[in-house]
């Protein structure tokens, strides 16, 4: 499985348009497979993240990443983001190369990053 995911990550080097998808149970699994190092992956994801999923459309430069955090980790994570709405839990994160919109469901621990 890991070899398949790694080959999927390397495949876009020779393709003009590719969609990459991946699922990892822990941050460490995603890191070992090289996903965390890619520019399409949001950098503020904490090492305590679990159930990590991502989808990246190379030719469009769009990406979606989701993961789960425990309540105590969520409280540490949210201050790293900039709130964009007073009525919805919508935030943004601006990295060196990417800008992300972030939605959070604190009760379930679900976090979703969207790069368009």
Structural class: alpha+beta
Low-pLDDT runs:
1-10
- Counted up, domains total 1
Give the biggest sheet: 7 strands, antiparallel
**Rounded Rg:** 14 Å
Distance between the termini: 29 Å
> What portion of residues is helical?
10-25%
Element-level helix/strand string: HEHEEHEEEE
Number of helical regions:
3
The backbone outline, from C-alpha atoms, is: globular
**Residue fraction in strands:** 35-45%
Q: Roughly what is the average pLDDT, rounded to an integer?
A: 81
The tally of beta strands, per DSSP, is 7
Protein traits:
alpha+beta, globular, 7-stranded antiparallel sheet, 116 residues
Walk me through what this model shows.
By secondary structure, this protein is of the alpha+beta class. The protein has one domain. It contains three helices and seven strands; from the N terminus they run αβαββαββββ. Strands 1-2-3-7-6-5-4 form a seven-stranded antiparallel β-sheet. The longest helix is centred in the first third of the chain and has 9 residues, at 2-10. It is globular, with a radius of gyration of 14 Å.
């Amino acid at each position: 499985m890991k070899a398949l995911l790694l080959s999927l990550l390397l495949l876009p080097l020779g393709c003009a348009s590719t969609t990459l998808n991946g699922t990892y149970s822990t941050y460490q699994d995603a890191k070992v497979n090289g996903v965390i190092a890619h520019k399409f992956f949001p950098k503020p994801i904490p090492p305590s993240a679990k159930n990590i999923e991502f989808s990246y459309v190379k030719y469009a430069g769009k990406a979606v990443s989701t993961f789960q955090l425990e309540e105590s980790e969520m409280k540490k994570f949210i201050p790293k983001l900039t709130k964009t709405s007073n009525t919805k839990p919508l935030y943004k994160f601006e990295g060196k190369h990417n800008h992300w919109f972030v939605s959070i469901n604190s009760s379930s621990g679900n976090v979703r990053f969207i790069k368009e």
